[in-house]
Amino acid sequence: MKRITLTTLFGIASVWGSAHAGTPITIGGSFDLSGPAAEVGKDSLLGVQYAVEVLNKRGGVLGQSVVLNYQDNGTNPQRASNQAASLVREGAVMLMAPQSSADTLAVSKTVSAKLKVPMCVSASGSEDITMKSFQPYVFSIAVNGYFQTRAMATRLAKMPYKRYAIVAADYAGARTNAVRFMELMKEMNPNVEFVIEEYPKLGAIDYTATINKILAAKPDYVFTSLYGSDLVTFSKQATAVGFFKQIDDRFIALYDESTLKSLGQFAPIGSDGGQFVPASYLATASPQSKEYVNQFKAKYGVVPSDWTTSAYECVMIWAQAATTAKTTDADAVMHAVESSDFKVIRGTLRFAKYDHQADTPMFIGRVDYSKELKQPVMTITDVIPGATLQPSEAVVMKARQSQ
Predict the structure, then answer these.
(1) Would strands 163-167 and 4-5 be described as parallel, antiparallel, or unpaired?
(2) pLDDT tens per residue, range 64-104
(3) How far apart are CA 85 and CA 112, in angstroms?
(4) Residue 270 parent element (H or E)
(5) Which CATH superfamily is domain 4-143+281-350 in?
(6) CA–CA separation, 339 vs 200, rounded Å?
(7) Entry pTM
(8) How many angstroms separate the CA atoms of 369 and 269, rounded?
């Protein structure tokens, strides 16, 4: 089907679809505002709140105001599912996915799929969400594990490193990412070997044993899928004992803006890193993205983090889909998601019909220190188009058949 390019239609005052004049449209979210994914959850909530504010200033959606109803799930899958179901019963016509992959998978299966409510994934990185455990009401703009590992493997496979160490939190999504990275590395460079795999628990507070085991294995390079507070804790402890110096900074992780800010003097300057939507890049990428960064900073005093911008874009994509569908009806909105081009802060995104995963780009660079900002930053060296990272339909179907 021919794709439809959407423009900004939020100011239209007509009343369409299932909404009623004067009745606000509710979107809901069970956010990880406490627990291991709290920092990501707080940043994501801020992005949704800002998006709702922007939408309402433009006239709302379908001529009606938008309201956000949310709760804190404590990074607990069962609680996230219960809360999401409650939010839908209270009238939410769209759900923001939680930030932890385990929470998102639970909500996707037990709420979004069963109650037929569109759910946008902005942060959860498990590829299982759109591949193995796909359901027709989920859509994702997160740079998932497949995209992340493919981008990093593509870069590292060209390097002279042979012996790799793997560090991932001990939960399904992180283990899937670790396995995918190893598979892709072997595919791209059959000479690599994995000398150690470490899977500390999610939310670990002491990484001493993991750090010592990695050093004892003497890897040429270390890959980790730790993120958020886990990555902050690991990096601080690793820096304190000279871990990064001992491995010559041959290390790569997802060092988003908020994680780098939290690390401060403990940031691994010189290490490699990936980001999803770096504000430093957006500030010069286009007039639209520059205006977004400047207006956000003027309001909150800080630049938007990767998680904040992704969550903001999720809401805007749903709003554009509802506008082109002329209704908040779930099936009509999902049809619009499948058949439309969406102009967002980071560019134009398209969703594959077979997995509802957007072709989001991946940003790779090196951790530096900015004297101007007085904090560590990521100097972006490579912008890898999402179209080159997206799994083929054959790869996705193979994953689903493996259940």
Answers:
(1) unpaired
(2) 999 999 999 999 999 999 999 999 999 999 999 999 999 99
(3) 8
(4) none
(5) Response regulator (3.40.50.2300)
(6) 41
(7) 0.86
(8) 7
